Amino acid sequence: MPILLRPVLESDLPILYEQQLDPEATAMAAFPSRDKDAFMAHDSNILKTIVCDSHVAGHIGSWEMDGHREVGYWIGKEFWGKGIATQALTEFLEIVKTRPLFAHVAKHNVASKRVLEKNGFNVIGKDSYNNSAGMLVDEFVLKLE
Asked: Which domain covers residue 100, as residue numbers?
């Protein structure tokens, strides 16, 4: 299923906002949804919309955190299990050439961990933190050299 990465358009934001409200998706990511103002104010050094069959399937981005370049993505639930995240990350890694590149994934999010591993990331450690909803999240830390 071919995808396209393109700059985020203003018209994408309501769709991306609704995708991050899905309770199953937020549980999988162990990342609570944000209110509309916080979501719309979200900025990232590099952010792309993932388009599949002319539909906004999600977004992928990269930012600086604690002196490291990070990558993360969000796929709308209706697009899960179709290889879209794997393909989007493969293409995104052609845009973001900085290495090492780090990613964090909730331990229970096996599918996302597999997406990262298919793209050459390796688990280098484990971490835990309290997310903005106060939930303790155990996660893997992955690195791409």
From this structure: 3-144
